[in-house]
């Protein structure tokens, strides 16, 4: 085959040979199948997988003349592995030697291209991934289908194979292959195999968790040595080691202990970055910090993540305070040397602090931490205020951020959408005008109406007066939204004051309540008109005049229709006097404002 000039001959031989192997696997008796496999399948691996690219002597410098279409090692390795798995289906029982052959065949597939010099041509790099996936499938299948090895024996075979995969990737890189795929395979292939197996053992082989945890620690120690001896790989290898340590934390810790473990690991990574001791890559620090932030964000909504040995009032302290302290410490450590990472820590601290503060506030107001399945009227009010305040805080913080500006702004938009959604809910399906959420016996002003409508209106007015436009939202929108919330609050507060039993719309409305709406409209409209004139704010002035017009129409069409005789005349006189007074005041103010520039 070394002298073959036509590359297509390899393909014309390989396809019929694989089909012939499939037929023989089905035809050979089970008693002879293993001997037949150990000879012919191994010969097939050598002749069809290695020789076309490396020659009979497995020389990496062999001039083969093949193309990726006529012979690709990855395709051939997949074909031989499928033949191997196909043959295992024919056995009812396999001895220990036969099981070891399966692992040995995969190891030969991995190492055969690099047998002479420890390094293989780059086209063989994908074979390492094929072998790694095949090892996991073989090992997990043995457990799932209750095949012929015990759990400990399966893990021992997989552990040895994982080490050989790691050594293969190390030999490829140290042999002179500095390509990106070679670097990536060295850093992630064996650790990913270890972590996936750790998760599988935690779920289905709990009694072997200690054994595989010790093996994971061994692999982590091996990679520490690799990172120390190969400085070019230190950052990526350190990130890989931290990934394995994080996986161990997830399987061994829970509740607040896991949260603290992740926080401590983030702090350790920050110290490593500060002092240059086995420094992890910056992306790994950001990933670990993001993992911590996501966990702390979801913590109030997942009871299984909360500490079970703490009281209802104390688990926020147990879960958040250690993380906040470690994030603040890492921020201080990196502030002067690693400004980019320090900004990430600052953003994480800000977010976790707000989540902890509002989670505890929700508990004080509702008596629970507001799980997603327990959203009621009070929780909606708390969530709406939290979302609004956090949106404005992130919008303000985005003004001083560099790379995180888009992150802050995007999160601010999401929180504003959440605020709008909760307000829509509070004013429609969950409105106190439909359900008895606010009892008539409660004190005026000092009730949930103030928290649900007047408080967010005050926050929006604050954003307007501070001219907060970091989220690229006009301050006028803040003012208009705040004014709308104040109007809704005023209307519902008036109804709450006059209703003796329930403030829902299903009860009748008294004359005193109707006149109260008119008086409130006149006062608010007059104040807005006065403010618009004095501040030369035409849009505010127009809103005030429109409101006054609406009050006048209401009085003529609604209020007066329910009065007779003397009280109707008094009502018209009072309305006329009010409008005349407002008109005189408007002209007076307008004249004084127009004279100011000349003076």
UniProtKB/TrEMBL annotation:
InterPro entries: DUF2339_TM (IPR019286)
Pfam family, one: DUF2339
Superkingdom, natural source: Bacteria
Signal peptide stretch: none
Keywords for the protein's UniProt record, in alphabetical order: Membrane, Transmembrane, Transmembrane helix
Keyword Zinc: no
Classification via PANTHER family: BLL2549 PROTEIN (PTHR38434:SF1)
Protein known as: Predicted membrane protein
Source organism (scientific name): Enterovibrio norvegicus DSM 15893
